[in-house]
Structures are given as structure tokens and as C-alpha cells.
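Researcher: I'd like a structural prediction for the single chain below. Treat it as a standalone chain; there are no partners to consider.
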Amino acid sequence: MEKYNIPVEATLEVIGGKWKVVILCLLAKGTKRTSELKRAMPAITQKMLTQQLRELEADNIITRHVYQQVPPRVEYDLTEYGKTLSKVLDVMCEWGERHIENELRKIVE
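Model: Treating it as a single chain, here is the predicted structure.
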């Protein structure tokens, strides 16, 4: 049985939703602790952040590093496979910048 009708469905299954792309953009800039991700996305709940991180980890897009210390330290990073999304994320960011400019022009007019 074919799971997807078109390839973009597979992409959206992995990175779709409000928060996953934001998480990926933040991790594209380097390793982040959970608290750093939360601070960068103040509107996300801790429960949602944890859920999104677990889903991305299950899809082999990010990796979770747990350091055995007190208090425990957890860091997230893109996997090599996750880094293959960089071109997609770059295009989305460029489009977003144009969209913001377009919306600002509407306000000024």
C-alpha cells in the first residue's frame, strides 16, 4: 500500500506543524539545550516542545544527548540526515522574509 500520494506529504509528515520547523531552524545554528529552545519559543508549552523533540528524534532528524551530571543536562543537535533539510529551511526562511515585507507594505499603504 502506498502511504503518500505525492512526495511533499512525506516531508510534511516529518516537519509539518507549527513548531518543528522553528526547532529545526534553531538547531541549524548549533546544538541547543532544552531551556534554550524554550526561551527562543516562548509561546510553546513544555509538553508540546517535548512532544515535537521526541517526534523529530524518532524520525532521525535530531539527536538527543544526555549528560550524566547533577542537574542532568540534555542537548539536541541535527543528525546528518536532519542537515539534509537545510536547503528546504533556507528557502522557507527566505520566503518568510518576503512575506513579512509584503505584509508590512500592506500596513503602510
